[in-house]
Specification:
Structural class: alpha/beta
Number of helices: 11
Oligomer: single chain
Length: 240
């Protein structure tokens, strides 16, 4: 029996469209330095709690910094900082710092990303972005990289569709496109991305390793794994 036609693609942002390490490593270092007012010992503890690997100089796969929401990160850091105010206030500070830093340092996983999105649109595919970043930050980053004209749907952890690996972001995109989840592909670099696709019943779940994803961690929930986003359209066509 033929598989359902793929009519839309939902991308993760960080680690998929955006090079995770190149973009976020400097943001995390700047953010903890600002929050601790330069207290190096406390900054180190916050990074460690977030899953920072001090040997490689980046966040570990599966860590809160790699796949958690800003609310989850704020809850962890507030406890360690003995934050005197509400956690929501710290979350807001983190949102602002991440948004400014993420936009400033944003680097795509491929220099051909606009061309890739044009090819997808010309193939009559709707394009969405689902992120554990805040929606405003996602939109600002897409605008910074001149990608906004190609995007039909944006969801962040605060958009009201739930968080990964829950299926809400996928289901919301499917509703917008007036298609079934089986007509949709989910592409991401983390296990949470692919588990979200599976939970929603996406017709094609693709793991991406070219932006920091680890093949062994993605394999259990992936229909296919690619290293180059440029290979996605051919994959969609051959699996139809």
């Amino acid at each position: 029996m033929a598989k359902p036609e793929i009519r839309a693609v939902l991308f993760d942002k960080d680690g998929t469209l955006i090079d995770f390490d190149a973009t976020w490593n400097p943001v995390y270092l700047e953010t903890v330095n600002t929050l601790t007012r330069g207290n190096q010992e406390l900054s180190r503890r916050l990074l460690e709690i977030g899953g920072w690997d001090f040997t490689s100089g980046t966040a570990r796969a599966g860590s809160p910094l790699r796949q958690g929401s800003n609310a989850q990160i704020a809850a962890l850091w507030a406890k360690e900082m003995r934050y005197p105010g509400k956690v929501e206030t710290l979350e807001f500070q983190i949102d602002v710092l991440f948004r400014m830093g993420g936009v400033q340092h944003a680097k795509p996983t491929t220099p051909h990303l606009p061309e890739l999105l044009v090819r997808l649109k010309r193939a009559n595919l709707r394009i969405g972005v689902a992120s554990m970043d805040g929606e405003a930050a996602v939109r600002a980053t897409l605008e910074r990289l001149d990608l906004s004209p190609f995007i039909d749907f944006v969801a962040g952890y605060d958009s009201g569709h739930g968080i990964k690996p829950e299926p809400g972001m996928v289901l919301a995109f499917a509703r917008l496109c007036t298609i079934k989840p089986a007509n949709l592909s989910v592409v991401g670099d983390s296990p949470h991305d692919l588990a979200m696709g599976r939970a929603a019943g996406a017709g094609l779940v693709v793991g991406f390793t070219g932006g920091g994803g680890v093949s062994d961690l993605l394999a259990p929930n992936a229909d296919h794994i690619i290293e180059r986003l440029e290979d996605l359209l051919a994959l969609i066509r051959t699996t139809a």
